[in-house]
Write a structure and sequence with these properties.
By secondary structure, the chain is of the alpha/beta class. It contains 14 helices and 15 strands. The protein is globular and about 95 Å long.
Length: about 425
C-alpha cells in the first residue's frame, strides 16, 4: 500500500509539473481585427478586414491623426486586407495569404454589410458570425449604400485610431440625438427571430469634411499664375478633404432581406415609438415671427400596442415627452402659458409627423419594425398563430393611431431673452 501511494503521489507531482497552456497563442503572432466588411459580387463573397497595426497596440504609433500622405491629412493606425471566396469564411481564411500573422476576430468592434449582400439576405452573414467560435455577438452591425469595402477603405480619418472604435463611440452617443440606435449582432438576431421577423439597421456612409488650411498655405495669385491676374491677390488652395463616417438613416429588413430605407427623421420616428430616444432636439418656431426655438427633450416614453375590437385590429403608438427651452432666436417672451402651449402643440405635430412618415415607409416595405406583431402575440397568441404567415400583408393594411403628449417644463437659466441695452 505504501508503494502504491508513493507511485500515485509521484505521478500526480509529475503531471502537475508537465501541465501548460496547450492552446496558447502568442500575442506577437496575432493580427487583431477591429472591423469587418462583407460584400458579394456575382457568386463571390468578399471579406475586408481592418487590422490594428502592432505599433499602435504597443503604444509606439500615433493617435487617430497620425501618419498619412500629408502633414495635415490624418490616417488611422490600421492596415486593410481584402480577399474573395465562395463563402465568407473561405474569403476570411484566404487573408492568411496576405498577412504574416493569424487574424484574431474576438475583439472585432463592428461589421459592415454591403447593400447587395443585404438585399440577398443577412442569413449567411449572421450564420457565419454566430457559428464562429471567436466572434462575439456584442459586435455592432451596420449596412452601407453600395459596397461596404469601399466605405471601410475610404474611412481613413477620424478621432479614433480605428473605424471599429469610432463606430463604438457612435453607438454610445447617437441616442443623445434621438436618431436611432446602433444594434449589436445579438439584437438583430433576436429581432429577426421574433414573430414579425423585421429589424432596423443603421446606414454608415462617408461624410467628407474639409480640413482647415495649414498656416502659410496661402500663396500670391501673381506667383501662382506666372504674373497674370490681379497684383497682390492672395489665393487659398483648395482644402484637403477628410473622409470621416456618419450615420445616415437606416435600412428596413424583413425575413433577413433589405427591403427599404428610412431617412434620418423617419429613423427618429421609429425611435420615438420604440422607446429608444434618450435625448433629442426639436427645432420649433416662435409664434409671432417664425424664428427658430430649440427645445431639448429630456425624457421620452414610447409604447406600441395593438387592440382587437369585433375582429378588427387597431395599432396604437403612444409617446410622452418632456423638454426644456434652451435657445430662442426671437426676442419675444416665451414664458407665458399660452405661448408654451403653442410650442408644445408644435412639438406634438413634429413628433407625430416623424412617426407617421416612418410607419408609412415601413408599411410600403412590408417590414413591421415597430413590432406590432409581437404586441399581438403577447395579447392574442391564438389570433397571432392565424395571422403570422400573412402578417406582412396584414401589417400593410393595419390602421395605426399615433398619440403624442409634449410638456415644456423649464426655460433654462433665463426667463426672457437677453438683448443689448436690456437693463
Amino acid at each position: 500500500m505504501l508503494k502504491r501511494a508513493t507511485a500515485f503521489l509521484a505521478a500526480g507531482l509529475f503531471l502537475m509539473l508537465t501541465t501548460g497552456c496547450w492552446d496558447r497563442r502568442e500575442i506577437n503572432d496575432l493580427a487583431f481585427t477591429s472591423c469587418f466588411a462583407f460584400d458579394v459580387e456575382g457568386e463571390e463573397r468578399i471579406a475586408t478586414a481592418e487590422i490594428v497595426r502592432p505599433a499602435a497596440v504597443a503604444g509606439g504609433g500615433e493617435g487617430g491623426g497620425g501618419g498619412g500622405t500629408g502633414a495635415a491629412l490624418p490616417q488611422r493606425n490600421v492596415i486593410l486586407a481584402s480577399e474573395r471566396g465562395d463563402t465568407l469564411f473561405g474569403a476570411g481564411r484566404r487573408l492568411a495569404l496576405r498577412l504574416p500573422r493569424r487574424t484574431y476576430v474576438a475583439h472585432t468592434d463592428a461589421v459592415l454589410v454591403g447593400e447587395e449582400l443585404a438585399r440577398r439576405g443577412l442569413r449567411e452573414v449572421l450564420d457565419h458570425l454566430e457559428r464562429h467560435q471567436e466572434f462575439r455577438r456584442t459586435a455592432y452591425i451596420l449596412v452601407t449604400r453600395g459596397s461596404a469595402r469601399d466605405v471601410l477603405v475610404a474611412a481613413q480619418g477620424g478621432l479614433e485610431a480605428t473605424l471599429g472604435r469610432e463606430i463604438t463611440g457612435l453607438s454610445r452617443w447617437v441616442r443623445t440625438s434621438g436618431f436611432g440606435i446602433v444594434p449589436t449582432i445579438h439584437d438583430v438576431i433576436v429581432e429577426l427571430s421574433a414573430g414579425a421577423s423585421a429589424a432596423l439597421i443603421p446606414v454608415l456612409e462617408i461624410s467628407a469634411q474639409p480640413l482647415p488650411p495649414s498656416p502659410g498655405a496661402a500663396t500670391s495669385g501673381n506667383a501662382a499664375s506666372g504674373g497674370s491676374g490681379q497684383q497682390g491677390a492672395v489665393r487659398v488652395p483648395d482644402p484637403e478633404m477628410l473622409r470621416t463616417v456618419s450615420l445616415k438613416g437606416a435600412g428596413l429588413f424583413h425575413q433577413d432581406r433589405l427591403v427599404g430605407w428610412l431617412d434620418e427623421h423617419q429613423t427618429r420616428g421609429w425611435a420615438w415609438a420604440r422607446n429608444q430616444v434618450r435625448r433629442a432636439i426639436l427645432e420649433l418656431e416662435c409664434p409671432e415671427d417664425k424664428k427658430k426655438v430649440s427645445v431639448e427633450i429630456t425624457d421620452s416614453q414610447g409604447k406600441v400596442q395593438i387592440q382587437t375590437s369585433k375582429g378588427e385590429l387597431q395599432g396604437i403608438i403612444t409617446v410622452k415627452v418632456e423638454g426644456n427651452l434652451l435657445e430662442q432666436q426671437c426676442l419675444h417672451d416665451l414664458t407665458a402659458v399660452e405661448v408654451l402651449r403653442i410650442l408644445e402643440s408644435q412639438a406634438v405635430a413634429g413628433i407625430a409627423g416623424e412617426i407617421n412618415n416612418a410607419v408609412a415607409q415601413a408599411k410600403q416595405a412590408g417590414a413591421d419594425v415597430f413590432d406590432f406583431g409581437g404586441a399581438l402575440y403577447r395579447q392574442e397568441p391564438q389570433l397571432w398563430k392565424q395571422l403570422k404567415a400573412r402578417w406582412p400583408e396584414e401589417f400593410k393594411k393595419l390602421p395605426i393611431a399615433v398619440q403624442v403628449e409634449a410638456k415644456i417644463r423649464r426655460t433654462g437659466l433665463s426667463l426672457k431673452p437677453w438683448q443689448p441695452g436690456a437693463r
